[in-house]
Specification:
With about 290 residues, the chain is of the alpha+beta class. The protein has 7 helices and 17 strands.
């Protein structure tokens, strides 16, 4: 998987109505189905950065397709196909688009981000240090940063298409979507996480935490969006695992590290990323794909 060109949008390569443009993904209307195109855009600290990162979109999309296939026996998902030859005249450049799209069923999105944490790190750790809790769940005292939980915990967030999603308690989620749906989504999310954690562990990778999105089709719960990618999950190399440190993640960590080392105020558009940061980020995305899929 080596791309010759990084793309910031798929609009010029598709002849279908664009109905939604996210930080990375674009949603096109095919009538009965959607087409989700995954660009090479990269975001950090709520800003879409430039330039685009070669192969990022190919990796995200190909990993999602792989994981949707691996988990279909656990949880039905929205994938119809990822075959560029079935698109006909909709696609204008097959070579550029072949690995960066999925045709999907149209589901009614449930506006909850279903987050599962297997380890106490990141934002969960910061909450714990301040309150002894994560999303209202009381945790044992004395936990160390990056420590593995005895059992994975479910820490949902209310979806917010602009800015950060809002961390909420499970009780608040029940108020928003109902107790029965909350319990179903919690059970499905933890089951999916545990499956992927085992799979990754066998390949020398720790899946520290992840997030899912679900939708409804005729009342049936469907897994949508992306799954177990470096943009939706925190992957650690086993050999780098340790307590009480910032573990270098197998994702866009070079971008975050670089931005944090500059004088950027996070309130105005940042300068373009240096070529070496873009190159290293691209390499990391390809690396996680090769470790998991090949």
């Amino acid at each position: 998987m080596v791309s010759t060109k990084a793309i910031s949008s798929a609009e010029s390569y598709l002849s279908a109505p664009l109905i939604y443009k996210g930080k990375v993904r674009e949603l096109y209307d095919l009538g009965e189905h959607y087409l989700i195109a995954v660009t090479d855009r990269i975001s950090a600290f709520d800003w879409v950065l430039s330039p685009a990162v070669p192969d990022k979109g190919n990796v995200l999309n190909s990993l999602s397709k792989f994981w949707f296939e691996q988990t279909a026996h656990i949880q039905p998902n929205h994938v119809v196909h990822g075959d560029v030859d079935q698109l006909g005249d909709i696609v204008k450049d097959r070579e550029i688009m072949k690995d960066r799209f999925m045709v999907t069923k149209k589901a009614e999105r449930i506006d909850i981000e279903c987050v599962v944490r297997g380890y106490i790190t990141g934002g969960g750790w910061r909450q714990y240090v301040q309150t002894g809790e994560i999303n209202g769940q009381k945790l044992p005292s004395g936990l160390r940063k990056n420590e593995r939980f005895e059992k994975p915990i479910f820490t949902p967030a209310a979806k917010n298409d602009v800015g950060h999603d809002e961390d909420i308690s499970i009780e608040r989620m029940k108020e928003l979507v109902g107790a029965e749906l909350t319990e179903q989504l919690q059970a499905k999310s933890i089951m999916l996480y545990e499956f992927a954690h085992r799979f990754c562990e066998e390949r020398g990778i720790i899946l520290a935490d992840t997030k899912f999105e679900f939708g409804l089709i005729d009342g049936e719960i469907i897994l949508i969006d992306e799954i177990f990618t470096p943009d939706s999950s925190r992957f650690w190399a086993k050999e780098k695992y340790a307590f009480d440190i910032e573990i270098d993640g197998m994702d866009k960590e070079p971008v975050r590290t670089y931005l944090s080392s500059t004088n950027w105020d996070k309130n105005s558009e940042p300068d373009p990323l240096p070529a070496d940061v873009v190159e290293e980020t691209s390499r990391r995305y390809r690396s996680i794909y090769e470790l998991l899929v090949k």
